Amino acid sequence: MRLSEAWLRQYVNPAVDTAGLVHQLTMAGLEVDGAEPAAADFSGVVVARIVEAAPHPEADRLQICRVEAGRGELLQIVCGAANARAGLVAPLATEGAVLPGPTAIKRSRLRGVESFGMLCSAKELGIDENASGLLELPPDAPVGADIRDYLQLDDRILEIDLTPNRADCLSVEGIAREVALINRLPFQGVEAGAAAVGSDRRLAVHLDAPEACPRYLGRVIAGIDAKAETPLWLKERLRRSGLRSLGPAVDVTNYVLLELGQPLHAFDLAKLSGEIHVRCGHEGESLKLLNGEEITLSPDVLVIADAEKALALAGIMGGEYSAVSEGTTDIFLECAFFSPALIMGKARRFGLATDSSHRFERGVDPALQTRAIERATALLLEIAGGRAGPITESVHSDLLPVRPPIRLREKRIEQLLGLALARDEIADILNRLGMNVAPDDQGWTVTPPSFRFDIALEADLIEEIGRVYGYDNIPRRRPAVASAMQPASETVLGLDRVKDMLADRGYQEVITYSFVSSELQRRIDPQLEPETLLNPISAELAVMRTSLWTGLLDTAQKNLSRQQERVRIFETGLKFVRRGGTLEQRNTLAGLVLGAVLDEQWGEKGRRADFFDVKGDVEAILGLTGRASVRFRSAAHHALHPGQTAEIVIGHVGAGWLGMLHPQFERELGFEQPVFLFELDVGALLQRDLPRFAPLSRFPHVRRDLALVVERAVPAADLLEAVAASGGTLVRDTVLFDVYQGAGVEAGKKSLALGVILQDAEDTLTDDRVDAVMARIVERLATDFGAKLRE
């Protein structure tokens, strides 16, 4: 919500500067995201009146103006604005003025005629984008006055990020009420007396759906001046709140919405047929909205209608047919209370988001409507004239929301806040909040005001007391809570330990969205149908991820676009996979590596990371589990390179994947170097085997090396498993220390050199026993894999 500080200070003006005001609001729970100037920086611009305007003798589009600027003499200004004319009051940048840019104004000569300054448009002053002509000021604007003072341009616009429960602060009055509360200042609210009634014209109103709209007010205002202009002060307040001027009738309703928080709407009376009905839409009924979109209504949508057709989408947007226009002279002004439960979600259904729906969805004060329509009537009569008819009100009082009384216990306040406040101070805070307070022996019975939809429980009242007392005034104390040590199983590996391991190896943790692009998701996991979001934030976040790789790849792309050539990142989080009719949420650890193995340095020659570098990182993680039954099995994955892909198997269950990104995806995603990925199921990863003590052997070990020739497709891991299985208890370890393909080795085959380490715990090994074990190993390898000893 955008809010003019100058407008706010007209209602309540605490003795604090802008920074102090921002701090107060933020600490009160109304977070201020920023405070920006209401206008660009400029100086030397005054209010001036054009006394004479004559055509330039040498240029058709220029005029020579004689301008009064409060200096006792007329200044000659050459101007090209189409609306420059005698009698017009406009801003004048005098000699020496500095306009936004910055642009210094000097005496100049235009087509042979001297000009002693420049008449300015709103765009040239940096207060609007409109550059169609000079900024027209009111005729009674004081000539010679500094334009910054006259328009209060030394103002700040506060950007307030309200939480959804604070609908009462969606107005200048609501924020002013909070500022008065914080600073212990009196606050009366916006004055809105009864407007003068000059006509007896009225339209009857019928509430056909009172549960959705229990209160509706309407008023006919006839004979307004169709050529009337919205005054500059009102236009400025709208502009600083992010709204543009659309004519007096619309501007007044927008102004009251900003000032009081009550949406209103004006219909062109000449376009209405018969009485007003607040009803549900008919099946298949259509309505063309103000934005030009035609929607199809249904019975669960509330509309404002006349005797023949729907006129507006209640609480959301008016219809195009009944909208006021430049020729409108008679209007029907409506003001209503709509049930938040009915309005909620309807705007989003039709792809709309309006200021009205934003407020009605969160709750508008049900006691505000009369004051709002009287305020809007008075403003419209002042600006555009006309004759107001009596207010027509239709209300079902029994259906209006009522704030029930809440029991507040004094002891409970101390328990939740950890702070003992005096009873008088508590009562004072509640009274300043607008509560109706009745004391009793244990505390108070408190009735919230009608505008506080967010207060329903005792805890809500205590939160308000803490908020107003000041969060920064509440002392810090450690809670006196009895705690018991919870058992921590040694068979469970902590996820934080895994994260520390990756951080030690140069990875950085990232957090990405669970929502991803459907196109990228399809490339990564085409065999899985992702869960589609009904209301995605954007097209790039349309489906739930079935792999964490989507977010990591997007992060890597963004890093590369910012010239970060070495990327090592990981993430832990949920992926969402539908199995049958159930959506499974699986906790997963995933990582991505691209670029150099090490940061650039003088001690090591630079090289890019490869499959085995990343495999080493994964093995280090798996090493934390102490499990011996971990294998890397050659497999195929749609997103990974066919020749550099491994399935990670723990026991006999697949627990993850490791590999290089498929070259096709690599090109499509714009990577110019290999990208390596891994993913592990956290549930399987965090199961740890306990280490068991084994006595050290007092006897020496023996090492025998084997040089074997096998088919190129035979995994070395299978050979190592076979050696361990056939060697029995004497084989303590097996090491693969050489792999060779080339001259001397038959095509399609490879040479593997294995070091077999044997040791007996109870005796010294003899050559005969070692030879027997080695023979058994060679025979097993020959039988199972066709391995031959290399000559």
Write the layout of secondary structure elements.
Layout: E1 2-4, H1 5-11, H2 18-27, E2 31-37, E3 43-56, E4 59-68, E5 74-79, E6 89-99, E7 103-104, E8 108-110, E9 113-115, E10 117-119, H3 147-150, E11 156-161, H4 172-183, E12 205-207, E13 215-222, H5 232-240, H6 248-260, E14 264-268, E15 276-280, E16 286-288, E17 294-296, E18 302-305, E19 310-313, E20 317-318, E21 331-337, H7 340-343, H8 346-349, H9 355-362, H10 369-384, E22 387-388, E23 392-395, E24 406-409, H11 410-417, H12 423-432, E25 436-439, E26 443-447, H13 458-469, H14 495-504, E27 508-509, E28 515-516, H15 518-524, E29 543-544, H16 549-561, E30 567-579, E31 582-594, H17 611-623, E32 630-634, E33 640-650, E34 653-661, H18 663-668, E35 675-681, H19 682-685, E36 702-711, H20 716-727, E37 731-740, E38 749-758, H21 767-785, E39 788-789
Parallel strand pairs: 12-15, 27-30
Antiparallel strand pairs: 1-11, 2-11, 3-4, 3-6, 4-5, 6-7, 6-10, 8-9, 13-21, 13-22, 13-23, 14-21, 15-18, 16-17, 18-19, 19-20, 24-26, 25-26, 28-29, 30-31, 31-35, 32-33, 33-34, 34-35, 36-38, 36-39, 37-38
Helix pairs in contact: 1-4, 5-6, 6-10, 11-13, 20-21
Overview of the structural elements:
The protein folds into 6 domains: 2-38 and 156-183, 2-Layer Sandwich (Phenylalanyl-tRNA Synthetase, Chain B, domain 1); 43-150, Beta Barrel (OB fold (Dihydrolipoamide Acetyltransferase, E2P)), CATH 2.40.50; 205-399, Phenylalanyl-tRNA Synthetase, Chain B, domain 3 (3-Layer(bba) Sandwich), CATH 3.50.40.10; 406-473, Phenylalanyl-tRNA Synthetase, Chain B, domain 1 (2-Layer Sandwich); 495-685, Bira Bifunctional Protein, Domain 2 (BirA Bifunctional Protein, domain 2); 702-789, Ferrodoxin-fold anticodon-binding domain (Alpha-Beta Plaits, 2-Layer Sandwich). It is 25% helix and 29% strand. The strands form 10 sheets. A 7-stranded mixed β-sheet has the order 27-30-31-35-34-33-32, sandwiched between helices. A hairpin with a 5-residue loop joins β16 (286-288) and β17 (294-296). It is elongated and about 120 Å long.
